[in-house]
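Hypothesis: this fold can be encoded by more than one sequence.
Test: take the structure tokens below, design a sequence, compare later.
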């Protein structure tokens, strides 16, 4: 797996890129909330990369985790399993998934995962809800 440290965004924001040809994950920390943006296909071959990225993000003990799937082209059952594992690893911190398209929101709703963790149509909505549910520093 290839990992690059991206440029620092500001004194309170940082970013890390992880991935391969089929998947890349950009991790940004904003106001102590880890945001993992998934680009590409989240399937049997790439789901372990999400698990690794979540584990790396949790090392900084964020007050919440958001996984943004708006740039995800394909979400297989292995990817959904990785999302459940991420939710379980994050608990009790707030956790949410941004999914609005037919390739992400639809399968998550079909299998009922919208009842397991919060789904948001936009990153802004996810950030607002996660910040509201996060413990005060």
């Amino acid at each position: 797996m290839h990992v690059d440290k991206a440029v620092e965004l500001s004194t309170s924001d940082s970013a890390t890129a992880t991935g391969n040809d089929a998947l890349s994950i950009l991790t940004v920390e904003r106001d102590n909330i880890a945001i993992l943006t998934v680009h590409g296909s989240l399937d049997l071959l790439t789901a372990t990369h999400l698990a690794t990225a979540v584990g790396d993000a949790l090392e900084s003990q964020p007050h919440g985790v958001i996984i943004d799937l708006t740039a995800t082209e394909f979400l297989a059952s292995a990817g959904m399993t990785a999302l459940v594992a991420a939710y379980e690893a994050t608990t009790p911190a707030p956790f949410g998934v941004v999914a609005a398209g037919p390739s992400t929101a639809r399968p998550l709703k079909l299998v009922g995962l919208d009842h397991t963790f919060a789904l948001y149509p936009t990153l802004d909505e996810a950030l607002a809800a996660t910040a509201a549910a996060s413990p005060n520093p």
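Residues 1-20 have pLDDT under 50 and may be disordered. The longest strand covers residues 33-42.
Hypothesis status: open.
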